[in-house]
Specification:
Chains A, B: GO terms for molecular function: proline-tRNA ligase activity. The structure is a homodimer of 490-residue chains. With 490 residues, the first copy, chain A, is an alpha+beta fold. The first copy, chain A, is 34% helix and 29% strand. In chain A, strand 21, helix 12 and strand 22 form a beta-alpha-beta unit. In chain A, helix 2 crosses helix 5. Chain A is globular, with a radius of gyration of 26 Å.
């Protein structure tokens, strides 16, 4: 177990927090519920951003930037949206401070805003208010815009990365001429998210749709990807919403169709946030520290020299410089830690804590033998391998590690997804073997709410392409045509 | 003159605004002084970001993210800083809205914050408060952190890109063990900015230092790069501050030196913003639209097919696909505009307005002759050239355009920088031939202020490596050892 990090079996929540602090990912700030993302944590966000941004652009999207502050009245325009977002939000009421004469800085009451401004909790309102000016005809459609931004939701119970008052995210907001096209976009972006989660985060996800209860405020349909964490709780990792014409109606965004008829524009929105970093940590890491999939690791390979005399280091450095060039040509990031202020053992512990996928150790005897010691973070296995062909060996190993981390998470999910047909069994499993519970549900909001109240389990999603199967609702015994996925969730 | 854009000689300020609106760069939002950066404008910001981010990383910096909201009390901790920034700022006082029962959304008075929060106008305070926890010993130094973020200053008179209440920027905040190292960092980052301005924005800049009057609130020394716009007004394009130990003292950030003594940490900060896009537009564009230097143009080459029949288009498309591959291999971005909804003439006007550096037009006769028509945006010259070797020709031309745009701006600045020795002449030139005025100044804040009050001209900077020259202050006649640069400024 790493120093200062509690075991995850002992206290999963504390383990998660310790890990983030000790690995220098993030820390809390003096402002309630807001976090400071430290360089190591931020470098993972940069990798996430770069990868997703390319995927968005490859599917035809462009970036833009809309204001941080939204007039209060905008929140009244879409009825269900106001319920969902107006409640817990940061409100700007004044635009000036002043010195009170005694050296205290106070709010200047003469600088009160006529209309209060809200720090965006999400940008549908300001964006659809803007689209009204951008869209006249079907020729102006589709609009495929994404924004990378900070947003704020005044959360009462916060947790680093998973739920913070301010967080970083991307929000796509698209406008279409037809419902079909908007739905296709919603589904496409869900698939982009699933692809990213599985192939970069090494995180298997269930693609599904939310029940009406769990939909985004203002959406006709919310698609989501749901992942299972190591403590058996589910985590919603991304959502993609079909908004119908709700926002177009609220902000009067009409267009002339090809048939020369006026109609309201169809909308989607979709987003993922710094929460993904929380999911990444929770799903793969262990008591020794982070375990990062190579594709998102800021440092993929670290080299630690083991030497007593400077000439030994010079010898090792020569070898490492060649390796560096070979790896960089393959697009693999490598760090040579030649600090003389730290012992090799301390370095080993540090990179283990930071989740660097591969560690190369080289001593003088290795230089004589033409070998190095390779240590994998995921399996903690070590082997002595030849220096010859090392770059190719590393390249192959990184792929193997990426696959192994994914497979481990997939096996865990498999082992912790259970079909349940009995409510008592359902409740027992939630406590004794938490995970995804696949169960029949009668399709009513009342039943869903009652199960939630009694067990704290929610319907995470109705999986896409769900198998149709006759059954009885686990709570009411009423008939049902398909199983849905329940879990306690973050 | 482009449709809807006034001539810059007629009304420079209106021309600037028209150009931004008509070229789809940005627009004002319903929130006073905040702008919406549209996809075309944002794509230029993305190029600026990517280029600078690489330059920062190449000089050893890493990115991080600090909270948007700063406790009000933090602003009282550094005396000169509070004067500079606490005045015009957005103040968050509440964290909830509620429904008043009549369907109105109002601020919930029960959700009043104990301490008001300020939307960051700049992040020195929150960052130095954080650094206290990061720094114990000289071994923790230097810290070389940069942040890409939005900030807010409640500006009364706003102008798209140049001065908006919310803007996007980067802010570097570094911590050092010695004053010398911090000063070297300040100077290094100024040179990074100057390099970027000259070699990417094609904008010649004067490197200099601000007078005490014009320094950043809390800095011991402010370095800046100053550029001259086409209307003869100066624009500060970037600043780099040596903050001494001011913020370390305000936030009690001490460290143990190598000599085992406690000392306060030395600081720098440096930033550039979306204002650079304003500078880019103002310095190169003309009455027909934007003129973008190839290195920052989102589209470097546009190809417009001229045809009547579909088989002609197919023929042209085949050629363009090959060209595309060749250009992309050279890292050159190309757009093939084969829309059948617009005539070639309309496309020509659109790309002229958007400042695309090179336009390729290809008709059926060209296909027969093995030629294309190449049109440069900067010189508006056209030539018919062979299809053979076109990619290399384009590559060379883009370099030539980049150099030409820079040279034109450098010549303009040269022609509009005047040495003045007489105050009446100084005032006359400001009205009749505005530009940089190089004049002697007695070094006092009083004289500087008086000249500003009387002429609206400020000392833009004391150029680095300034020639030492005996002279008399232009206002007071007192002795002076060097000329400084005056101008009216944005």
């Amino acid at each position: 177990m790493s120093k200062g990090v509690i075991s995850k079996d002992e206290d999963y929540s504390q383990w998660f927090n310790d890990l983030i602090i000790k690995s220098d990912m993030a820390e809390y700030s003096p402002v309630r519920g807001c976090m400071i993302i430290k360089p190591y944590g931020y470098s993972i966000w940069e990798k996430i951003q770069a990868t997703l941004d390319k995927m968005f652009k490859d599917t035809g999207h462009v970036n833009a930037y809309f204001p941080l502050l939204i007039p209060k009245s905008f929140f009244s325009k879409e009825a269900s949206h106001v319920e969902g977002f107006a409640k817990e939000c940061a409100v700007v009421t004044h635009y000036r401070l002043k010195n009170d004469g005694d050296g205290n800085i106070i709010v200047d009451d003469e600088a009160k805003l006529e209309e209060e401004l809200i720090i965006r909790p999400t940008s549908e309102t300001i964006i659809w208010n803007t689209y009204r000016g951008w869209i006249q005809s079907y020729r102006d459609l589709p609009i495929l815009v994404n924004q990378w931004a900070n947003v704020m939701r005044w959360e009462m119970r916060t947790r680093l990365f998973l739920r913070t008052s301010e967080f970083l995210w991307q929000e796509g907001h698209t406008a279409h001429a037809t419902a079909e096209e908007a739905i296709a976009e919603t589904e496409q972006m869900l698939e982009v998210y699933a692809d990213f989660a599985e192939n970069f985060m090494a995180l298997p996800v269930v693609r599904g749709r939310k029940t009406p209860n769990e939909r985004f405020a203002g959406a006709l349909d919310t698609y989501c990807i749901e992942a299972l964490m190591q403590d058996g709780k589910a985590l919603q990792a991304g959502t993609s919403h079909f908004l119908g014409q709700n926002f177009a109606k609220a902000f009067d965004v009409k267009f002339t169709t090809k048939e020369n008829v006026q109609d309201y524009v169809w909308a989607t929105s979709w987003g993922v946030s710094t929460r993904l970093i929380g999911a990444l940590i929770m799903s793969h890491s262990d008591d020794a520290g982070l375990v990062l999939p190579p594709k998102l690791a800021p440092i993929q390979v670290v080299v630690v020299p083991i030497y007593k005399h400077d000439e030994e280091l010079a010898n090792i450095t020569g070898f490492v410089n060649t390796l560096k060039k070979e790896l960089q040509a393959k697009g693999i990031s490598i760090k040579f830690d030649n600090r003389d202020t730290h012992r090799p053992g301390a370095k080993f512990a540090e990179y283990e804590l930071k989740g660097v996928p591969l560690r190369v150790a080289i001593g003088s005897r290795d230089m004589q033998n033409g070998t190095v010691e390779l240590a994998r973070r995921d399996t903690k296995s070590k082997e002595t391998v030849a220096q010859e062909g090392l770059a190719s060996r590393i390249e192959a190993l990184l792929e193997e590690i990426q696959a192994n981390i994914y497979n481990k998470a997939a096996e865990f999910r498999e082992a912790n997804t259970t079909e349940v047909n009995d409510y008592e069994e359902f409740k027992r499993l939630l406590d004794e073997k938490p995970g995804f519970l696949s169960a029949h549900w009668d399709g009513t909001a009342e039943t869903e709410q009652k199960i939630k109240d009694e067990t704290k389990a929610t319907i995470r999603c109705i999986p896409l392409n769900n198998k149709q199967e006759k059954g009885k609702c686990i709570l009411t015994g009423k008939p049902s045509n398909q199983r849905v996925l329940f879990a306690r969730a973050y």
